[in-house]
Amino acid sequence: MAVMTLFQERRNALFKKMPENSVAFIASGEEKIRNRDVEYEFRAESDFYYLTGFTEPDAVLMLIKCSGASKATQQSILFLRPKDEAQEIWQGRRLGVDKAPETLNIDQAWSIDDFEDQVADLIAGVDSLFFTFAQLSEWSDLASSWIQAQKAKARQGIQAPTQIHDLDSILHEMRVIKSKQEIEWMRQAAQISVKGHLAAMRSVASGKYEYQVQSDLENAFKQNGSPRVAFNTIVAGGDNACVLHYTENNARIQEQDLVLVDAGAEYACYAGDITSTFPANGQFSKPQAALYETVLAAQQAAINAIKPGVSYDAMHQASVRVLTQGLLDLDILQGDVDQLIEEEVYKRFFMHGTGHWLGMDVHDVGRYKQQGEWRTFQAGMVVTVEPGLYISKDCTDVDAQYRGIGIRIEDDVVVTETGHDVLTTGLPRSVAEIEQWMAQNRD
User: Fold this and answer.
1) Which of 19, 170, 193, 296 is 20 to 30 A away from residue 422, measured at CA?
2) Residue 399, CA distances (Å) to 287, 327, 331, 403 in order
3) Of 56, 210, 262, 266, which is the active-site residue?
4) Where does the pLDDT of residue 398 fall: very low under 50, low under 70, confident under 90, or very high at 90 and above?
């Protein structure tokens, strides 16, 4: 399937879910200033790219689904930056209005400079407007002006829109189920991510700074075809691993540290997401190994629970039971395993969920519950599986040998027709495998 045809088919699928006499607006986003006149690297909003394959800022896709002889049944209109020789010399080439329809299989293309004026006429007679409610504050003033303009024409028989809907309820549910092509892109993102994690394991050494390991990991991403990271890389040595979203990456790694690396490559705008935990010196201490193997067993139990028809929450419950029993076995917790789970005592050491949807966004879109109940897995869903244990140095009531240890193990898993498929294969995972790999592959 041609890539552009794929984006067109996605638009057609969205059209089918939109009611008659409705219009949807999806924006690509705008460049953001980092400091002074330096911009952050631009990446198009995922919903916009999902429907267009277009990567420029300051663009809006307008999808019109109307009935009546005066208008086409459905139209895809793209508003984008016009060609501008002076701007392109300084800031880069633009596709431009003239080339957009043929290049992107769009019905019409207009300059973004004409957006406000053109839309006011295009929504005449439309009943419903669809925006993502996450951006509603950005659209509200425009939508209000458009609606008022149409109401002013009531004597001409023109009806103004009467309803505003959240586009996410339709579009994000489409994105939850990945096509075969999407899964292949995600497999590529996953395997590039694996190469980066192996580079981090090869790079790590006592005395290095966390950001130096990060540099080697991200270099491997780029060398293997990833244009950017899918999210801010975490390289956390020792007690830093007990901060779940630690991104400072500026501490010096110590000889006896476990190093937690949470990082993923982006490929074709799809995210990989892996967490590895390994010893800086290549050898786990006995307490580190005991905690690590507990987390690994919990991850395997969670992965084994994934198949069509099973509750999303089943993998979390599977990991919680293994982790709680492991903490009991190590005398970090005391009591009855069922009671400890019921009272959520484990949350002191495992305070997050076991996974999340994965796709174009690392924390991808889509509901986790429907009508108040955990939804069940379906073929084509992709989820991360990432149990962990975090015993900070401040846990003074825990045996000192376990303090300052943070462990998370994360892989990317696609739900298949008969079960599941791990996309992030190729990493050493057990204590023995990690020690052997590091002994053979580090300088």
Assistant:
1) 170
2) 10, 12, 9, 7
3) 262
4) very high
Looking at residue 70, its pLDDT comes to: 53
Query: Is the per-residue pLDDT at 359 higher than 60?
Result: yes
Q: Is 141 considered catalytic here? A: no
Could you say which of 34, 252, 363, 442 is catalytic? 363
CA 183 to chain centre: 14
Task: Decide if 410 is catalytic.
Answer: yes
Q: What is the pLDDT of residues 222-253, one digit of tens each?
A: 999 999 999 999 999 999 999 999 999 999 99
245 is catalytic: yes
Does 197 participate in catalysis according to the annotation?
A: no
pTM above 0.90, yes or no: yes
Q: Are strands 420-422 and 411-415 parallel, antiparallel or unpaired?
A: antiparallel
Catalytic residue among 267, 408, 411, 420: 408
Instruction: Give the residue carrying structure tokens 């003074």.
Output: 396
Predicted pLDDT at 260: 98
Catalytic residue among 168, 218, 273, 361: 273
State the catalytic residue, choosing from 386, 411, 412, 420: 386
The active-site residue out of 43, 165, 348, 352 is 352
- Cα distance between residue 57 and residue 42, in whole Å: 7
Neighbours of 88 (CB within 10 A): 13
**Residue 134: per-residue pLDDT:** 86
**What are the pLDDT digits (tens) for 14-72?**
999 999 999 999 999 999 999 998 999 999 999 999 999 999 999 999 999 987 655 55
Give the Cα separation of 79 and 107 in Å (integer).
11
Does 316 qualify as catalytic in the annotation?
no
Q: Catalytic residue at 39?
A: no
Burial string for 412-428 (b: 16+ CB within 10 Å, else e) reads: bbbbbeeebeebbeebb
- Cβ(63)–Cβ(170) below 8 Å: no
The predicted pLDDT at position 29 comes to 96
Residues whose CB is less than 8 angstroms from the CB of residue 179 and which lie 6 or more positions away in sequence, other chains included: 6, 380
CA distance 416 to 424: 15
pLDDT at 3 over 70: no
